[in-house]
Structure formats: C-alpha cells, structure tokens
Amino acid sequence: MKNKEFATAKVELNNQYGNMRKNLVNGMKRSMNMTMKLLGAAFFILQSSFFISCSDMLDSDSSRQVFEPALDQKTDSVFYALGILQGMQQLADQYMFQGEMRGDLVETTTYTDKNLRDLANFAAHQPGTVNKYDSAYVYYRVINNCNYYIAHRDTTLRTGATFVAMKEFIAVKAIRAWAYMQLTRIYEKVPFYTEPLTQISQINDSDFPQLDMAGIVSRLAPDLEQYTDVKYKDYWATPTFGSVAPSSILPDYLFIPFDLVLGDMYLETDQYSKAASHYIRYLTEVVPMERNHTAYMQPYSRNTRRMSMGGDELPSDWSQQRNQQISGSTSWEAIFTGNSEDNITYIPLAPSKLQGQASEIPLAYGYDYYANTASYVDEIQIVPSKSYVELANSVDFYYITTLTTETQLNVGLSKLGDTRYRSMIYEDPNAETDEVTTWITKNRTPRIQLYRRTSVLLRLAEAFNRLGMYDAAFGILKDGINKYLVSEEGGAQYITPETREALKTTYPLLSAANVSKFSEAKSFFGVHGHGAGYTRDYTGTTYQPGLSPYQCDTIVGLKMKEIAAQFGVSVGTTKQDTINAVEDLICDEMALESAFEGSRWFDLKRLARHKNEAALYSANFGGQWLARKLAFKSPVVNLEDKNNWYLPFK
Questions:
Q1: pTM
Q2: Domains of the chain, CATH where assigned
Q3: Rounded Cα distance, 111 and 131, in Å
Q4: Nearest to residue 344, comparing CAs of 447, 490, 217?
C-alpha cells in the first residue's frame, strides 16, 4: 500500500476506533461508575495481604479491615464477590506483559519501556532485578480477599430451596485457585495459606509451606472437585453494567468456571485424563444451551471477506460466490471488542483514567486509548516477531474452487497465509526506507482475555494428544466437534476405532447424551479453519473423506520433517513421534489463535515440560525446543535450564 493510501486508511481507522471508543465511554460511564463502586465499596477489600518483607507492608494499612456489609446476611452475594475483581484489575497488565513479552510472538522496538524489554530478554530473571510488572503482591492481594470471603461467608442461607451464596462461593474458590496457579507458573514455589491474614503479626509469626504447582493442585483441587455436581450457569444473562455494545459488562464473563481452573491445574501437572474430563464437563454440561458452542460456527476473519471481494491476488480457480458464502456472519476479530459467544472470562478495565483501574496495554501496542481522541501512535513498544509473521504467512489457505458443482464440493489450497494474523495487523510500508510500521490491533481496548471457548478446545486437544488420542486432537483442529468424529460409517476416517469408543465413553465428549449438543443445524469448523479456510471434510450433512487438502497424515508428516530438520533428530513413525508432532501443530495453532492475549510464555513452558517428561529425543528435549523458539530474543539466561524459566520470588 502506498504511503498516501495508508495515511488515508490510518485516518479512517482512527476515526473508526475513535467512534467506537466514544460510544464505549458514553455507554460505560454510568455502568463503570456503578462497577467501580461495587468493586471498591460493596466488598470489604482487605487492605492486608501476604508480603515478602515488612517494608512492603508499609504500602497499605495492613492491620485494618472493614467488616461491613456483613457476610452472614442474605444479601445478594454476587456484589461481595465482585469486590474481589478489583484485585484482578490490578494484576491485569502484569498478567498480560509477563505472558507475552517472554513468548516467541512479539519483539521490542526502540520505544520499548525498560521493564518490558527486561522481560523480553529475560533480564528480569536475574536475581536482584526490579521490574514494575513483577510482583507476587498483586496475586496475594486477590488470594487474601478470597480467603476472607471463604472463611466468613455463610453458605447455608437459603431463599426457598436456593442457597443464595453458593454460586459466588464456588466462583471465589476458583479465583483463588487460579491466582495460586499463576504464582507457581511465575515463581515455581510460593508460600501457601488459606486463612485470611488481617494483622502483620500473622505474617511475621507464620511459617507458610512453600509449594510448587503439584503441591498447589494437591491442596486445592480436591476442594473444588466436591462441587462437580453443582449445575452452575450464568450469573446474569443480560448486561447489568451498561447497555451499549461493546461496552456492556456481563458479570457472567467476570468469573472463572471452576472446571476450567481444574482442567488447567491438571494439564500443568501432566494429569491429562483429569484435565480432559473437566474440559469436557464444561463443554457439555456447564455451557448454557442457548450459547452452546456458537463460537465454533464460521468465525472467519474479516480478511476472508476481503479476499472474496478481490482484494488479494487470488488463485485462478477461486470461486468468489462460494467463498463469500462460507465466510459466514461471525467476525473472528469481534471476539476482542464485544461480548462474543467465544468469551468465557475477561478482565475489564476502566474506559478512562478517572473512572478506575486503567491499562497500559493498548498504548504499548501503539494505540492511545485514553487520549481525548483515541488514535494510533508511532511510538509502538510491542510488534509481532519475525517468527510469528513467518508462521502466519506460511499457512495454506483452503478455498472452494470453481470446479465445485451442486453435488460435489471441490477444495484447493493457496499460500495466502492465515487470515487471523491479517485481521489484527495494520502495516505502513515506507518506500524510501523499506521499513514497515506495524500495529497490532487485538489489544486496542482495555480488556484482558483469560478464557475463550476456543482456548478451551485447544487445551482439550493438548490433553487428548498426550493421552494418545492424537487423532481426536487433530480432529479439533480440522473438523471441529461433531458427530462425524465418532461415526463408524460415513465419518472421519482418520479417527481410530479406539478413539471413537473413548469419545463416547471414557471421555464422553460425543456420547449418545452429548452428541446432539453439537447441532447439525450449524456449520462447524475446526479451530484451524478460523484462519485457514475450508479445512473440514464435510458440507451440510454430508461427510466427504479427503475433501480438503488439510489431512492428518499429510500435515503431521510435514511437521515431522520440520522437527527432524530443525533439531537434527531422527523422527520415526511411532505413536510417540506422532504425538510430539501433533503437539507442535497445536502449539502453532495456539500462536495463530491466541497471540497477544497473555498466555504464550506459559503455554510454551507447559509444552516444554510435556516434552521433557516424554523424553522422546533426549531427556531435555523440551528445554532445547523452548530455547530454540526464543533464541531470536538473545535471552541473558540459558533457557535450556528449566531453573531459568522462573522469576525470582519477590
């Protein structure tokens, strides 16, 4: 695009997002005022928490707490639970920056803040360093408030047959478990306590156990498991704070389903069977039916439509009409600006610095959200890494060809790249210097994604794969969750009989009771189809094996060759070789689907641990794999050593 054309486009984009922000601010002023009052006053918000030194304790009035409103009365408990979320707002930026700066998807620029740069090159991992985005305190503040609530909330109070506080009581326990899980992801071993701390003496006189992830899971998972018979659903089904999309805040999106926390804790500790079972329970029993799985129905990116309209150099056999039809009505990028069906949990931050906890994230990505007139700026601190861009551009796009007839679909492939990348990236090429200015638009609003339905699917695929069900994992990428994965006749031929049976029984994602929850009336796509087009082998109610060029043997075989070339190892055709290759495919998909959402570094570490545990090519293959992925960042520590994966506890 020429500079003049881009300048015009940039103005239009600024106007577009400026108007969006204006609408958001106007729509949220009253709602966020109400929210902030709830977050700041309706709950007790303990001023104490666990600190590492007494000097830290001076930052707050740690011996004071507010006991009103009382927790033994039948007041709507959700308002108390909402107060804990103020602490979640205060850790949001740290969560995002720690998770992305140390991953392989971003790079720094000349404008990058030193704190972010030290995370990116792992200087923050060296003892004695100070970093504004490295504080255990922000997590312990949440934990201590959860402890107080759990210790004092009367869960026996009822209105009729309804226990008025139980939903929120469980939700608070899930938040506490999530916070401890993040701490062990960051620091490996952390002090553990479940009693509320209200005095400095309780901290000074206590010898808290130091627990790693396995220890945290052994302490907290059994407590959450006792609620697996609770059929929790929405907290509130309609926007309670604000009414103008995308500004409306649904409290349902502010809490973390405990099944997902359990699934993640088990996945982190290589308990794949338990992890899969909880992800399946969430997908089949917890998600309200009226919103069930719509996230996996045609969420194409906007750029798919642009290709259909001739905005790209398309293959000669591209069927413009047919490819427009498969693009659907759900825009993938809309997930990050509104209350999309794909959202499960996010942390909303204030729409202005005067209305609560603001975020530094949009500005770091080059969008001044809090300016009087929100706009893109040139002082960009975080840009896509070359490795991420190369990955996105290397993706084959699968399209419907002109050879398609009324009775037979025909699918081709072209090196058009992954459209998810193109839908969240804007570039300004400078013809004189050959330099390109790049904006990542995914984080232009102050909302931090914690869980999406698609991310749950990818983690379920990760668990399935390590259970030996690599075919089911690939099915999630290729065809999505539907009856064809378990059909013995006229179904997915790459699914083995053993896996079909497991999906009906041991891991009943598609049991007789559940298969109907994945409706035939909708067009389901595998996760890879979100950005790569027609990866599936079915159309309507007909499955056509081999329809799409995106096939298990082909794609896994290519990944095996890539692994052999990169690491100089002998990659065979054993089941373990296949599992490792499919895991790398899932890793790539996580990059394409979940880039810049704050999870990348932790995903990489978890997958590296899986590889070390398997010890397929060497005892430390996971460390070698991780170090290779991050070598371009020139880390100041040796990432082959897993002891360097964690920040010093402070």
A1: 0.87
A2: 3-230 (1.25.40)
A3: 17
A4: 447
